[in-house]
Design brief:
With about 200 residues, the protein is of the alpha+beta class. The protein is built from eight helices and five strands.
Length: about 200
């Protein structure tokens, strides 16, 4: 469902990790300005197959040393494979420069051959995963999140195939949406043991 970005150079990698360190020390340097609550999303691939996931998305903004940053962060679970994924897009805008960086777990070459149960141990320290760990909990308490829940719908697609609607992950996503347990979704994106616990609880 995602296009892999160009190779991240050393300077961009340094920027991402520097921002991560600042964020872990003080998540409040970021303001959550947009939240798209947990929902079902499907798309048609180039080969005609349909892929589907449950996903929640955030947009954050920050200004540091007269440089403006915008960070888009998405957390996914693929309904077919059960594999969790987190990706971020960072835009940096200063008076004399602009930079855009895309990265995520599934952009790493090892991701494709990694089983769902291995994602957390393999990629838990990835910058995208660590950003999510620092930013998602406070973001879910933000005004942007509260406002979004006034219009949110789990599935706006009218012709969702039964194979997706009857899947355990679809049902989990729908149940977490209905009970507004978005922090639990954040946790189970990578933690398959916790995901299984939630499924047993909700059945």
């Amino acid at each position: 469902m995602l296009n892999k970005p160009d190779f991240i150079d050393e300077e961009q990698n340094y920027l991402l990790n520097s921002l991560l360190t600042l964020t872990q020390k003080n998540p409040a340097i970021w303001e959550c300005v947009e939240y798209n609550p947990l929902s079902f999303l499907s798309s048609e691939e180039d080969d005609g197959t349909i892929s589907a996931c449950i996903v929640q998305m955030f947009v954050f903004q920050s200004e540091l040393n007269q440089v403006e940053f915008e960070l888009e962060l998405s957390e996914h679970i693929d309904i077919t494979t059960g594999k969790g994924d987190i990706y971020i897009t960072l835009e940096k805008q200063s008076p004399d420069s602009y930079d855009k960086i895309d990265t995520g777990l599934s952009f790493e070459t090892e991701y494709e051959d990694c089983a769902a149960e291995q994602i957390q141990s393999q990629f838990g320290n990835h910058v995208a995963a660590q950003m999510a760990e620092a930013l998602v909990p406070p973001a879910l308490q933000s005004d942007a999140a509260s406002s979004a829940l006034q219009w949110a719908i789990f599935n706006v697609e009218g012709d969702t195939p039964l194979k997706f609607k009857e899947s355990s992950l679809y049902k989990l996503g729908e149940a977490l949406f209905d009970s507004r347990r978005f922090l639990e979704f954040h946790r189970c994106v990578l933690d398959c043991s916790y995901r299984e616990k939630l499924m047993a609880e909700l059945n």
